[in-house]
Amino acid sequence: MRSGRTKDEAWGQFTVRLVARDDGRFDGIAFREDKGSEAKIIGEPHETEAEVRARLKQEVLRRHPDWVGYEGAVKFFRRHFPNGFEDDQYREAERDYKWNAKRLLDESVPLG
């Protein structure tokens, strides 16, 4: 994309707009027509257009009231499974059926 040019992408209720700068970097803004700007990103020199777009979308998601984030996900997991991945309830509710499905898939459709 040439310098000064913009590239818009519809993303759910948002428009994600990237602008190419003279120095080769990209800046981005995400907005909704009814609410205005939701997030702005100034691109770093090493970032590609795709990386700036992904970072901009992540920023929009992080501002949503339902955002949990990494720390929130860990707290949620620990609240339900105090012993982490070694918790018996985790194994019964989450791990065993997935592990059995993986073994069946490995036997049915081997990779090599």
In short:
With 112 residues, the chain is of the alpha+beta class. 42% of the residues lie in helices and 24% in strands.
Question: Your description of this structure?
Answer:
- There is one protein chain.
- The chain is of the alpha+beta class and 112 residues long.
- The model has no long low-confidence stretch (mean pLDDT 89).
- It is elongated and about 55 Å long.
- The chain has a four-stranded antiparallel sheet with strand order 1-2-3-4, covered by helices on one side.
- The chain contains three helices and four strands; from the N terminus they run E-E-E-E-H-H-H.
- The two termini are 42 Å apart.
Features:
112 residues, alpha+beta, four-stranded antiparallel β-sheet, 3 helices
